[in-house]
Automatic annotation (TrEMBL):
Domain Aminotransferase class I/classII large: from-to ranges: 42-384
Family according to the record: Belongs to the class-II pyridoxal-phosphate-dependent aminotransferase family. BioF subfamily.
Keywords: Biotin biosynthesis, Pyridoxal phosphate, Transferase
Organism, as annotated: [Phormidium ambiguum] IAM M-71
UniProt subunit comment: Homodimer.
Cofactor: pyridoxal 5'-phosphate
A GO term, aspect molecular function: 8-amino-7-oxononanoate synthase activity
Function: Catalyzes the decarboxylative condensation of pimeloyl-[acyl-carrier protein] and L-alanine to produce 8-amino-7-oxononanoate (AON), [acyl-carrier protein], and carbon dioxide.
PANTHER family: 8-AMINO-7-OXONONANOATE SYNTHASE, CLASS II AMINOTRANSFERASE/8-AMINO-7-OXONONANOATE SYNTHASE
Pfam families in UniProt: Aminotran_1_2
Protein name per Swiss-Prot or TrEMBL: 8-amino-7-ketopelargonate synthase
Length: 387
């Protein structure tokens, strides 16, 4: 047998190319911010999740340096062995305070938090109901859990109710999982209705607040706060790497839940604790979210300004419905989206094409930041006009 067992990879790559699905990285060589150096070109940045402009903020950088000098670069072990520091506990307390929950637990990333939490609370005898547009980490967490997974139509309460009526009885526990802000669309899940259904059918609810934390809600706690649902029982996941400008993820909820996860979540138990630098930067970011609400107000002002400019200047454009800092311009197919992304970059605008299999339909995705100037929003609209 002389057949190379890896020979399948190259034709598979060719197939990806043919579908215009091929992806590659682009290098940014400056600090993160509203303007970045992208592949040697100065561009206005509409591709970042750094909604409050904190990832390049001097106080976060200083906190990370201070923590590194004091505690070193690595936490050297899992939290239960040698990797736990007082800084981790302080961060967990700060997250719980922001989210108005009893407790929180910090993971290496939001992705890991979802895998660990979902796989811990349900298993083979249980049912998961999953919004069709949920993030990859929710979907893979569901698979990892071994539970039966049923998808419901995107944000479709009647479909969710139907499936619960049909299937809930056959299973022990049931978990409904959903993004609160959908990451590739920008719309919100109908949380109060989901929680009411969950109560009626005796289900747990797990929400992913990745794009809502620091952005939505009176105190920046997220979509749960936006909908006045902070007193409802649920499992809240989030990331430290978007509006909080650092790296890591978390679960927030009751102290019983957090205590259970500390003993059960494999992606928390068997992995190294968050680095001192990431921990300290996230802690500083939460302080800023709580003490400087004007950053969030500015973000929302920018979102409204951009929506208004688009409505005025581009009346025929198809924007997907959005109630967040994510605005999407729907396009015909992957090739059109790619070409639009390239043309925008030539005009000094960084707004990426998002294609299948990440999303069902191709689009240009625009992320608004608190640190964008009105003039930069105007330049984006002009570039979109010229497409
Ligand atoms: C980005 C994102 C994650 C992953 O968070 P990381 O901390 O980057 O791993 C999870 N869920 C959603 C909805 C996201 O957008």
């Amino acid at each position: 047998m002389s057949i190379d067992p890896y020979a399948w990879i190259e034709p598979s790559l060719t197939t990806i190319h043919r579908a215009d699905w091929y992806r590659f990285e682009q290098t940014i060589s400056s600090l993160p911010g509203a303007i970045v150096q992208l592949e040697g070109r100065t561009v206005i940045n509409f591709a970042s999740n750094d909604y409050l402009g904190l990832a390049g903020d001097r106080s976060l950088i200083a906190a990370a340096i201070f923590a590194t000098e004091k505690y070193g670069t690595g936490s050297t072990g899992s939290r239960l062995l040698s990797g736990h520091r007082q800084l981790h506990r302080e961060l967990e307390k700060a997250i719980a305070s922001l989210k108005q929950t009893e407790a929180a637990l910090v993971f290496s990333s939001g992705y890991m938090a979802n895998l660990g939490a979902i796989a811990s609370v349900v298993g083979k005898r249980d049912l998961i109901l999953c919004d069709r547009y949920n993030h990859s980490s929710l979907k893979n967490g569901a698979i990892l859990s071994g539970a039966t997974i049923l998808d419901y139509e995107h944000c479709h309460i009647a479909d969710l109710e139907n499936q619960l009526k049909q299937h809930r009885e056959k299973y022990r526990r049931c978990l409904i999982i959903t993004d609160t802000v959908f990451s590739m669309d920008g719309d919100l899940c109908p949380l109060p209705k989901i929680l009411d259904l969950a109560e009626h059918f005796h289900c747990m609810v797990l929400v992913d607040e990745a794009h809502a934390t620091g952005v939505l809600g009176k105190n920046g706690a997220g979509c749960v706060e936006h909908f006045n649902c902070t007193d409802r029982q649920l499992i809240q996941i989030g990331t430290l790497s978007k509006a909080l400008g650092s790296l890591g993820g978390y679960v927030a909820g009751s102290s019983t839940l957090i205590d259970f996860l500390r003993n059960r979540a494999p992606t928390w138990i068997y992995t190294t604790g968050l680095s001192p630098a990431d921990t300290a930067a996230a802690l500083e970011a939460i302080k800023i979210v709580q003490q400087e609400p004007e950053r969030r107000f500015q973000l929302w002002q920018n979102i409204e300004t951009l929506k208004l400019l688009i409505a005025q200047e581009l009346p025929n454009i198809k924007l997907l419905p959005s109630e967040s800092a994510i605005l999407c311009l729907q396009l015909k197919d992957a090739a059109t989206a790619l070409a639009a992304g390239i043309k925008l970059k030539e005009a000094g605008i960084f707004a990426p094409a998002i294609r299948p299999p990440t999303v069902p339909t191709s689009r240009i995705r625009i992320s608004v930041m608190a640190t964008h100037q009105t003039e930069q929003l105007e330049k984006l609209v002009t570039a979109l006009k010229n497409l």
